[in-house]
Amino acid sequence: MKLIVTGAKGMLAGDLLPLLEDYEVRAFTKEELDIRDEEAIRAALAEENPHILVNCAAYTNVDGAEDEEEMAYTINARAPGFLAQECKRIGARLVHISTDFVFDGSKPRPYTEEDLPKPLNFYGLSKLDGEREIQKHTDNFVIIRTSWLYGHRGKNFPKTILTRAGELEELRVVYDQVGTPTYTVDLAHAIVELLSAPAGIYNFSNEGVASWYDFAYNIVELAKKEAVALRVKTIRPILSEELNLKATRPHYSVLHKDKYRRYTGLPIPHWLDGLERWLSRELRARKNEGDVR
Fold this sequence. Notes:
This protein is α/β, with parallel strands linked by helices. It contains ten helices and twelve strands. The strands form four sheets. A six-stranded parallel sheet has the order 2-1-3-4-5-10, with helices on both faces. α1 (11-16) links the parallel β1 and β2.
């Protein structure tokens, strides 16, 4: 079976590609295939003729989307719609990654795939419209909603916390946003499991519930256990409004994952388990690079 993966230099693709050894894979970086370029997409799909296209390319700067609406919307909404059209034209399946930010956080229980989306920010709106564009143009799709992704490429929350904890004596982290941190390695495994799933939307994140404060606290505590040299003495919980961020975030965006479990029959790792594995791998990589203080 032949697969195309877009966004090959990204954080998620970095953990997905090693899991696809049983497939014939053509991975495209943003420079090699810009999903905003309709002619390039049409030509690439015509040449490669894949069975499945896994779209890991996205605009993910939540606050930046408030200022760069056109760019965010083109990448997150228009481009997935065109990918869907071209996949349908050649008879391929489209696997696309979406977000918990399609919800407004007003529900007091985990969100199911059937719950009504109502995004609070432009990033969430662009991702929701991307879902709708896909569903408008093809029936052969798998959309995977996930949350609070972190991995080993580029910037992410655990890396930022470790850096700041090594420089500052106090960290200020919001406690009134609750969701589930999700390790890209675990999401990558879920994507592989869902490649041949019945068409539709699937929720996947790690198990458990945390605030950003909980996430930060555990990053620091696990790093201390691994004897990472840190300056931080206090992690202070604050309200979201104290950060004055441009984009409003949902206060609660935990995802209900029974649909994934029913299809795969697989357990889902807890977010703390994912974080421990992330830190272990991150510290090994830093040690190899001579970057552990």
